[in-house]
Design brief:
The structure is a homodimer.
Chain A (H helix, E strand, L loop, with lengths): L4 H8 L5 E3 L21 E3 L4 H14 L3 E4 L16 E4 L6 E5 L4 E5 L4 H9 L3 E2 L12 H6 L7 H4 L6 E7 L5 E4 L13 H4 L8 E8 L1 E2 L3 E9 L2 H15 L3 E8 H10 L13 E9 L2 H17 L5 E4 L3 H11 L2 H6 L7 E6 L5 H15 L4 E7 L4 E7 L7 H14 L24 H14 L14
Helix pairs in contact in A: 7-9, 12-13
């Protein structure tokens, strides 16, 4: 970076867009896992797509690396700056620009927090179905760059499935104006797909045209206790068949997750006792309240009659539904109740038929290394996705060993090492467990073609 | 192409895979629109992915262009060989290799006809939801390469939404083994997205892991007559709200389409009189027959009571449902009943609120050129997608003028020039009406990076 480069940025961009030195707040280089992060050379906070383009054109010319930041809630260190990088924060591009109920589209700037978008479209009787625990701080741009999943994938798909068009700035400052609203548009290579889920290494998303749906009139949540994982899978099949398109979430929690969350996380209450082996949170939504109630009650009755579920509670109000969701959404808070913060968090896809054996294998092999270590397992069973946290307070020096162990077991079970969190820096050493050499080499070819100077989030996912 | 190249292919590949000279059947260079097509230098019909890889490695070395063929039902001349090209026909890779009901996945070779796959998974009580009129001859590989849409997009999305993993051979013969079965797999760039809908210019799809769903127990079809397009859109909103996830198709036909199909296409019977301005085919599906019947009857009653629909008929059996579908599926047959085969066919996306004005504008401006010319309009209204055929039997010399006219009007209405058919050769001159210069240049960058010798379907979509 040449001497006067920061000054050149200052004069090229919107006044106040460039922060440096003491003006850089700690939040731009803060790791939620507590590891030290170098301070960036500058933080640039554009208000317009044109400023993003100007910034990248200059950085491309100089070969200056840039790391793009959304809400900083990612779990794979993808948005933390390396030494000498410039941070591009999207926090000032946070407007919902348009909501079109008849077309079923909302247009939002990339720095818009997810919850802000959710609440804005609710005013028009609509729903943006993407939802995850970090909704208050994560941004639409971050959701797109990581192809976020979350709680309603079973009904509405991943973020990718909710995107109609994207405006993107590529490494040399070119603006790809693809903010289209069509559901169907087969006109050559679908470029937006390249930028969804590629963690910002191919371009910076600046605005998105997103699918919105009529908000369900009624949403009801049940929490159920089940005696075995076999019964969880039978119950899932039964729920799919009887609820059809009304089934909007099916989340499973192993005993340790439910029990410890109820016992340790402040403000969380458990409506069912904590001794059951498995808990399922099930959500049904639709336009006909009587039907949703009747369908859900009938499902629970049948499941009880078949001895699939041991106990269950149904939400009776929005508040009680939110209280049940709060249990499932408290995974980060649960982690924070343990003193050793470097707990190992995993996010895997695998066949639902092998999930119980997978969790048991992790539990026993974790205990073989450290008898007091244990795994907390939960996740989106209906999507084939589990989250696993391994707690080993007494053996912090064995972090790498536990990490390796879980990835090895995931490989043995034919799973994916990242269902929704992405690769970033943290999982880079394990990428080859889920992608072939030829695939990784093809990714490199694309990166070199679109970012020949390797300035966008360099070193994330793979090294060039 | 060097002298002995065809012989080299013959010795490198499976015996019988290479046809040349008089062994090349006319079907490999037959245009359904009747235009002359040059005979390819050879037709290669591999049985294995390894043979596709060997073929491309040799063609890459020699710089020999290859055009890949599926069922040859495309509408944009994308699969017709240019002079001196080698045809890669996928017709011998046509097996459904695996159907896994519990995982909801089927694995099929690219040359498998769509209907063969549909029927195979039906044996296991499953449904592959992609469906279009060409089902008997189009192939899974062709569906993927064109991101086919069809009749159930409103509920299940485009082909892209139905793909979990792909095996692809790139231009230099590299095999990308991405045949994964996960719904969620965020492990770096999602390479498969590059090959879906890019019309074979970046790679050859050899096998696919496809999502399959429990087959609905009941499927019922209604055909309705409506007095105006405004009432069509109100009826669509009502159907979405009242049927929710049960609504699996909503197809609209302008009077000319319905009337002419009933009058001219052999074997098609019209259950409603032919004088109504608009006809809607609506399909509802689900696991509970009584509920589907009751919901559909209630919807039709309400719509009749609100004077939205003038007349309606409900299917009473699989046979009567198929008879109604046959009307909507006969667009190609209808075109063939006109003596002048070079009718101009369009496939556009636009806002549903502007569809009526769009169709009226085309009608009046077509008549201004030729008073006896007329437009036939129909399509997937629920997805924002219309098909338009302009018939101008008396003025065949004005083909280009009519084509230009419809694209101009599509541009004026902010529409996409290809909702589902793709660009191929036919629409290449109009690509810039739906994509920006920067987007097309980025497509070229990708093409050069993945196919530096420009051997895969060269000249389709754009020239390098």
């Amino acid at each position: 970076m040449s001497e006067g480069f920061i000054d050149e940025l200052r004069s090229a961009l919107d006044k106040g867009a460039v922060l440096s030195g003491g003006d850089i707040d700690a939040r731009y280089h803060h790791d939620i896992a507590g590891n030290p992060v170098p301070k960036p050379r500058a933080v640039v906070r554009p208000r317009t797509t044109e400023d993003v383009s100007r910034l990248l054109r200059l950085c491309h010319r100089e070969g200056v690396p840039v790391t793009t930041q959304g809400g900083m809630t990612g779990l794979v260190r993808g948005a933390l700056p390396n030494a000498n990088e410039i941070v591009l924060s999207m926090e000032r591009m946070n407007s919902v620009e348009e909501v079109d109920a008849s077309a079923g589209v909302a247009i939002a700037q990339a720095g818009t927090p997810l919850q802000k978008l959710q609440e804005r479209v609710e005013q028009d009787g609509l729903m943006f179905p993407l939802d995850l625990g970090a909704r208050g701080s994560c941004t639409i741009g971050g959701n797109i760059s990581t192809n976020a999943g979350g709680n309603r994938v079973i009904r509405y798909g991943m973020t990718r499935d909710l995107i109609l068009g994207l405006e993107v700035v590529t490494a040399d400052g070119t603006v790809l104006k693809g903010l289209r609203k069509y559901i169907k548009n087969n006109t050559g290579i679908d470029l937006k797909q390249l930028f969804i889920g590629s963690e910002g290494i191919l371009g910076v998303v600046t605005r998105a045209a997103l699918r919105v749906f009529p908000a369900p009139v009624e949403r009801q949540v049940a929490l159920c206790a089940l005696p075995s994982f076999g019964q969880v899978t039978t119950f899932l099949r039964m729920a799919r068949e009887s609820l059809g398109g009304e089934l909007t979430a099916f989340e499973v929690m192993w005993n340790a997750y439910y029990r410890l969350t109820v016992e340790r996380v402040k403000g969380v209450a458990g409506p069912l006792p904590t001794h059951h082996p498995f808990y399922v949170l099930l959500e049904a939504s639709g336009s006909n309240p009587e039907r949703i109630h009747a369908d859900l009650e009938k499902l629970l009755e049948t499941a009880m009659g078949d001895n699939l579920i041991l106990d269950a509670t149904l939400s009776t109000s929005n508040a009680s539904a939110a209280a049940i969701w709060r249990i499932r959404d408290s995974s980060v808070e649960l982690g924070r109740t343990f003193p050793y913060t470097a707990r190992v968090g995993f996010d895997v896809s695998l066949a639902i038929g092998r999930m119980e054996e997978y969790a048991d294998t992790i539990g026993s092999r974790v205990r073989a290394i450290d008898p007091q270590a244990f795994a907390i397992v939960f996740g989106h069973a209906g999507d084939g996705n589990l989250h696993v946290n391994v707690h080993h307070e007494k053996t912090p020096d064995k972090h790498d060993e536990f990490e390796r162990l879980v990835y090895d077991i995931t490989g043995e079970f034919g799973g994916s090492i990242s269902a929704e969190h992405g690769i970033g820096i943290l999982k880079r050493p394990y990428l080859k467990m889920s992608r072939t050499e030829e695939e990784i080499e093809t990714m490199r070819t694309l990166k070199r073609a679109l970012d020949p100077k390797n300035i966008l989030n360099p070193g994330r996912i793979f090294t060039v």
